[in-house]
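Minutes, project check-in
Item: structure for the 89-residue chain
Input as provided by the requester:
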Amino acid sequence: MPERDIFDEIARIAYELWEKNGCIHGCDLEHWCEAERIVISRIEPVSEEKPKQARTPRKTTSKPTGKTAKKAAGTATKTRKTSVSAKKA
């Protein structure tokens, strides 16, 4: 829509709003802003938010990471010390 047509459409709607509200002077800015909102909503309809799709869980890799990587690499791990009372039993 050409710029001049948009301006004319806003002016026409603002005038209609002015008449509809009883031709009260001093509300021209409110009528103009409302007319702009109306015209813009006709040109660019408000798009509704698309519902978010559920994310699929990520596939786990077969490569171990962190502590499991050290175990897989064959590095020695510390053994747990047993208490003296556990040895006697």
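Outcome recorded: Residues 3-43 form one domain.
No further action items on this chain.
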